[in-house]
Design a protein that fits this description.
single chain; 82 residues; alpha+beta; Glutaredoxin; 4-stranded mixed sheet; 3 helices; globular; Thioredoxin-like_sf; plasmid; Grx-like_ET
Length: 82
């Protein structure tokens, strides 16, 4: 399984912002659209115990909520990986 997984839904500004942040940081990730893929939705719920995207999983760290809440935690988790 990839080290970074981003669970998204279409037309989600927070999802797009997280994707741009990960790309800007040069962090390869796998995106899973939970609206179009019932298996991805079930996986997100099992791994993160939440029902709403975006959810970002970096190694063992699970982040959810709006981009403004996730951003500092994502950057800290990426810094630890470096």
């Amino acid at each position: 399984m990839p080290d970074i997984t981003l669970y998204t839904v279409p037309q989600c500004a927070d999802c797009e912002a997280i994707k741009r942040l990960l790309q800007h940081e040069g962090a390869p990730f796998t995106e899973k659209n939970v609206r179009g893929d019932p298996q991805a939705l079930a996986e997100m719920q099992r791994r993160a115990d939440v029902r709403i995207a975006p959810v970002t999983i970096i190694d063992e760290h699970i982040f959810y909520g709006p981009f403004s809440d996730q951003r500092p935690r994502i950057l800290a988790a990426l810094e630890k990986r470096a």
